[in-house]
Amino acid sequence: MQDQYNRKIDYLRISVTDKCNFRCMYCMPEEGVDYIDHKDILRFEEVIRICRCAVKLGIHKIKITGGEPLIRRGVCDLIREINRIQGIDSITLTTNGYRLQEFLPELKEAGVTGINISLDTLDEERFQKITRHEGLEAVLKGIHEAVRIGISSVKVNCVPMGVNSDDFAEVAMLAKDEPVHVRFIEMMPVGIGKEFGRIEQKEIMKKLEEKIGPLMPVEEKLGNGPARYYSAQDFQGRIGFISAMSHEFCQDCNRIRLTADGYLKLCLNYHSHLNVRDFIRSGVTDGQLEEFLREAVYHKPRRHGFEEQDNEEREDRRMAGIGG
């Protein structure tokens, strides 16, 4: 598939739930939220059908997200079925890592080729402040076990905030002795994220280089997304940056998103308005569904427009609700 700006769209991120066992301060209020009604959540057979039609149109990379995907019952069975679709090249997972270790054998058997773990600090006290949950040790065990059992791509995603600004180098050190890629993601003004200031890539790099030495850019492609990677001396893994704000990468965007309640999101910063769920449940054929997806992708926005205050279509839902 190509959109009207000639970008090739081959990557689909699928949120399977808006629920999460953490309450990360930049994603969800401490008291929790009202979750999507069960009847409005896409059934697995509907997700699989959407994937089959999307693959016919050129999608061949799938990411399973949440909320926290590992709390939805049967998610490994879903991954296994998606992986059986001819044309799928890779299927990866993003998780907070709290239950990762117990699921790793089944995830590997189901065909997961890569796992991204969200981790913003290695300090237990700050971990609990950020996530409002205990569990740092469990997350670290999941990371190390994923490497040990041979998951081909293990990445750690860190969102720098004021409360964890002293932790950059410590998190980056996870890439030193194991082939783990640590990526730093600029805070985006989506949902509660609007309430936080962002620390830009150049500042993060400066702090990192003070502790771990020079970072040298590398050309290798490590995954499906827009991260730019650097090597550090004697590090097995790479240090990456996803900098949607200071280094906009919209011109190379290759992705669309499917929310847990069945909306097709063409851009992270635009509210959902393409209801695939109701379209499917109206009794359409696969051919009609394919045409729906093709037409939607063609109209993907040119850029995210995060800085445009007058953008009337800006996303106002929290990140957990859209599978960011």
TrEMBL record:
Keywords attached to this entry: 4Fe-4S, GTP-binding, Iron, Iron-sulfur, Lyase, Metal-binding, Molybdenum cofactor biosynthesis, Nucleotide-binding, S-adenosyl-L-methionine
Cofactor(s) needed: [4Fe-4S] cluster
GO aspect biological process, one term: Mo-molybdopterin cofactor biosynthetic process
InterPro entries per UniProt: Aldolase_TIM, Elp3/MiaA/NifB-like_rSAM, MoaA, MoaA-like, MoaA_NifB_PqqE_Fe-S-bd_CS, MoaA_twitch, MoCo_biosynth_MoaA/MoaC, rSAM
Residues that coordinate or bind GTP: 13, 94, 155, 255-257
Ranges for domain Radical SAM core: 4-215
Statement: the UniProt record of this protein carries the keyword Isomerase: no
SUPFAM superfamilies registered for this protein in UniProt: Radical SAM enzymes
Region of interest called Disordered, as start-end residue ranges on this chain: 303-324
Pathway listed: Cofactor biosynthesis; molybdopterin biosynthesis
EC supergroup of this enzyme: lyase
Biased composition annotated in UniProt, kind: Basic and acidic residues: 314-324
Known catalytic reactions: GTP + AH2 + S-adenosyl-L-methionine = (8S)-3',8-cyclo-7,8-dihydroguanosine 5'-triphosphate + 5'-deoxyadenosine + L-methionine + A + H(+)
Pfam family for this entry, one: Radical_SAM
Residues binding [4Fe-4S] cluster 1, per UniProt: 20, 24, 27
Binding positions ([4Fe-4S] cluster 2): 250, 253, 267
Keyword Transferase belongs to the record: no
EC code: 4.1.99.22
HAMAP family per the UniProt record, alphabetical: MoaA_B
Entry function: Catalyzes the cyclization of GTP to (8S)-3',8-cyclo-7,8-dihydroguanosine 5'-triphosphate.
Assembly, per entry: Monomer and homodimer.
Family: Belongs to the radical SAM superfamily. MoaA family.
Protein name per UniProt: GTP 3',8-cyclase
Lineage: Bacteria, Bacillati, Bacillota, Clostridia, Lachnospirales
